[in-house]
Write a structure and sequence with these properties.
The complex is a heterodimer of chains A (618) and B (159). Helix content of chain A is 38%, strand content 13%. In chain A, 62% of the residues are buried. Chain A has 3 domains: 198 residues, Aldehyde Ferredoxin Oxidoreductase,  A, domain 1 (4-Layer Sandwich); 176 residues, Aldehyde Ferredoxin Oxidoreductase Protein, subunit A, domain 2 (Orthogonal Bundle), CATH 1.10.569; 170 residues, Aldehyde Ferredoxin Oxidoreductase Protein, subunit A, domain 3 (Orthogonal Bundle), CATH 1.10.599. Chain A has a 6-stranded mixed beta sheet, sandwiched between helices. By secondary structure, chain A is an alpha+beta fold. In chain B, strands 1-8 form a two-stranded antiparallel sheet. Chain B has a two-stranded antiparallel ribbon with strand order 2-3. In chain B, strands 4-5 form a two-stranded antiparallel sheet. Chain B is globular and about 65 Å long. The chains are: A alpha+beta (618), B alpha+beta (159).
């Protein structure tokens, strides 16, 4: 099978590195990556530990298809307990380092403890060592990347690192790999910083062998690629416009959260859309988008490679930001744009660059700035707090300033690094925070898209679109169209998406394949690669097992059903315009049915029957 | 008809499917480090460029080999390394102006593209047609067509 069957266990406290066999019994029950790493954490860690203490584990995990030529088979996930939510954190990233780890001969890296001073982990095939990183501490991801490539004199080294925001305690700092791919959400980078671990560098030249049935695997992989190529979303929409294909679509259906989710449509949406990224600039005639870039083995290639207008105020005297780098994805463009009321695509691209350079999750960052802008409008935050900056909705200058100070952890940037929930609590207006379980919302308004509201409320990592992307069904009609304004039937839809997603995330594949693929396309690829019978039904069962295991981790960590909730704004203040005018989210109608379908009691607890049926860990 | 690999870097997304196909076909492993085609990422410029052997007619590597281990494959025009003859002296890696012949320390032999015997797997694996296997005498036609499309038919009439 395509596993290395061994993992690295790194104890940062005593500086030891041990090799141990991957628990293949667990791989059989939890598939890999998200599921398998969480299984390790459930076994070895008390869910009540302080997320920023040495007792928290930090796991880099690949899936069985990571490193193969299955389309998008290059993913890895970072699993830990989140300092932002207190729940399980599991952030999935593409780029190239996940496959490189597999090529070096490792399925996972488990970090424990805390180093006495800054270190980084270097992995060259079998040789793994902790090396001093005192000279890297205080450097951005981009600076650290350049220094590490020079130090190792190896242009092919793959690097994942944290930025200055994480070092300064920003609670939504991610881990950036390959310069602009991110294990972005829930503060996994903050945990890495708390361990004094600056970077992980990997070079693997062994490759992946041992696929169980080579001919069947190549057939399944080829069939899968053909489905992606022939699908309108994965074959045309995503390569051409990236996920930004959604900006105008979501605005039109009246579900584009605007100005801290007070409104549901944004007058400047087109200016920051995927279409706008193709339009030539007046100054130099070049469009924002240079080309599209693919992650490892990805035949979709939704990634944006962009430049900023060299004449734009944000970069005018900064040649280092006038080069190409990772451009705007939809969620980032929304959080930095409509949610803050800014429709300046160059400002958004600049802030996106800074988020990549210093590791802020752009969704949480943008949403936190949006909350701060509302607090400013309300007169709670003033220019005294901001050092004179007018933190107004729609101000591109204020947005760029906010990113600069948060990236470096300076002044008011430390407040912004708290995230929306703690910021609003600090300034006495908790109701203005658009979060679930302390994590900021992504780019779909649950008043105009009912099912996604339930998905946000019940997501195991706080508000998140990637834990059950019902937008596929409610807006895009994949696999079948459901009415976005209707809450009936959404409980089952959300459960189905959540379970399937957990399985896809655990396979080493990208969730974007599921615009075209169902588990019928994925299971044959897994089955040909791995031992045992992998049917779509079994994958769904594994997904459900993972979901319930995560739920139990959270409940044991102290999270209750009360937190399966949405902010009052989305439950009480009806949308004023667009197709969803007059609607609030009908969470109360969906949640009881969801609990019932999940096999949970009215307190949202996994029942003994469900535990037994899914064979959950004790 | 002689065919050759044709590379259009403008279409490349840097996904490395070509490298995986190459290493799998030739070494039975998914391993870019064992690929004979390489994709280079010029990050700051936003450019990805696949590069491999272009099968020169008067191949420097073939002429430089002291033991005649690199031979013309008459069927498809590729210059193939015969492992049973190669002594791993690496003179060909010095002779090749493009760097597309390289040494494999595991086998002690050199490796280079052999067009997979006339069915190059990098081309069939490429999702964007950045790598195609086409009539060697027509590799420029697509680009000519693109420029032809921009030609103004009425330019002279109006002059």
């Amino acid at each position: 099978m395509s596993w290395s069957k061994k993992l690295l266990r790194v104890n940062l406290t005593d500086g030891t590195i041990k090799e141990e066999p991957t628990n293949m019994e667990w791989a059989n029950e939890y598939l890999g990556q998200r599921g398998l790493a969480t299984r390790y954490m459930v076994e070895e860690m008390d869910p009540k530990v302080d997320a920023l203490s040495p007792e928290n584990m930090l796991i880099f995990a690949t899936g069985p298809l990571t490193g193969t030529n299955a389309s998008t088979g290059g993913r890895y996930s970072v699993i830990t307990k989140s300092p932002l939510t207190g729940a399980v954190a599991c952030s999935n990233s593409g780029g190239f380092i996940g496959a490189e780890l597999k090529f070096a001969g490792w399925d996972m890296i488990i970090f424990e403890g805390k180093a006495a001073s800054p270190v980084y982990l270097s992995v060259y095939n079998d040789k793994a060592e902790l090396l001093p990183a005192d000279d890297l501490w205080g450097k951005s991801v981009w600076e650290a990347d350049e220094l590490l490539h020079k130090k190792h004199a190896d242009p092919y080294l793959r690097i994942a690192a944290i930025g200055r925001s994480a070092e300064k305690g920003c609670l939504y700092a991610g881990i950036i790999n390959d310069l602009h791919r991110a294990a972005g959400r829930s503060g996994v980078g903050t945990v890495m910083a708390s361990k004094n671990l600056k970077a992980v560098v990997v070079r693997g030249t062994k490759g992946v062998t041992g696929v169980r049935d080579e001919a069947a695997f190549q057939n399944a992989v080829a069939a899968g690629k053909q489905v992606l190529a022939e699908n309108a979303v994965t074959g045309q929409g995503l390569p051409t416009y990236g996920t930004q294909v959604l900006m105008n679509v979501i605005n039109e259906v009246g579900a584009l959260p605007t100005r801290n989710m007070r409104e549901v449509q944004f007058e400047g949406a087109h200016n920051v859309s995927g279409e706008a990224m193709h339009e030539p600039r007046k100054t130099d005639g070049k469009p924002n988008l240079t080309t599209n870039g693919g992650c490892f083995a990805c035949t979709i290639a939704c990634g944006r490679i962009s430049t900023i207008d060299p004449q734009h105020f944000s970069v005018k005297d900064k040649p280092e930001y006038q080069k190409n780098s990772g451009g705007l994805e939809y969620e980032a463009a929304w959080a930095l744009g409509p949610d803050t009321g800014v429709d300046d695509i160059d400002a958004l691209t600049y802030v996106n660059f800074l988020c990549n350079e210093d590791g802020m999750d752009p969704i949480s960052f943008g949403s936190t700035v949006a909350a701060a802008m509302e607090l400013f409008e309300e007169g709670v935050i003033t220019t005294e707090h901001t050092g004179g900056v007018e933190l107004k909705f729609g101000s591109a200058e204020a947005l760029c300033w906010a990113a600069e100070v948060t990236a470096k952890g300076e002044g008011f940037g430390l407040d912004l690094g708290l995230g929306s929930k703690r910021l609003c609590e600090k300034y006495g207006r908790p109701e203005l925070s658009m979060t679930v379980k302390g994590q900021e919302f992504p780019a779909y308004d649950p008043r105009g898209i009912q099912g996604i509201g339930l998905a946000y409320a019940t997501s195991n990592r706080g508000a998140c679109h990637l834990r059950g992307y019902t937008i596929s069904s409610e807006i895009l009609g994949i696999p079948e169209k459901t009415d976005p304004l209707e809450s009936a039937g959404k409980a089952g839809l959300v459960k189905a998406f959540q379970d399937a997603t957990a399985a896809v995330d655990s396979a080493g594949l990208c969730i974007f394949t599921t615009f075209a693929w169902t588990l019928d396309d994925i299971a044959p690829q897994v089955a040909a690669a791995c031992d045992g019978e992998w049917t779509p039904e079994r994958m769904l069962e594994v997904g459900e097992r993972i979901w319930n295991m995560e739920r139990e981790f959270n409940m044991r960590a102290g999270i209750t059903a009360e937190q399966d909730n949405l902010p009052k704004r989305l439950l009480k203040d009806a949308a004023k315009v667009g197709p969803a005018a007059g609607k609030v989210n009908e969470l109360d109608k969906m949640l009881p049915e969801y609990y019932q379908l999940r096999g949970w009691n009215e307190n949202g607890e996994v029942t003994a029957e469900t535990r037994a049926r899914l064979k959950l860990p004790a | 008809m002689l065919k050759s690999l044709h590379i259009d870097p403008g279409k490349c997304t840097g996904c490395l499917q070509c490298e995986l196909a190459c290493s799998y076909e030739n070494e039975k492993v998914f391993n870019p480090a064992k690929s004979r085609i390489k994709v280079f990422n010029f990050h700051d410029e936003g450019r990805f460029v696949p590069y491999t052997c272009t099968q020169c007619d008067e191949a420097w590597c073939m002429h430089a080999c002291p033991v005649d281990a690199i031979k013309l494959n008459l069927a498809n025009g590729s210059k193939d390394v015969h492992e049973d003859i190669c002594v791993g002296c690496k003179v060909c890696t010095i002779a090749c102006p493009f760097g597309t012949v390289n040494y494999n320390a595991d086998t002690g032999k050199v490796v280079k593209c052999d067009l997979c015997g006339g069915d190059p797997k990098c081309a069939s694996a490429c999702p964007t047609d950045a790598i195609t296997y086409v009539d060697a005498e027509m590799t420029g036609y697509d680009r000519m067509r693109a420029w032809a499309a921009k030609t103004d038919n009425n330019a002279n009439a109006q002059a």
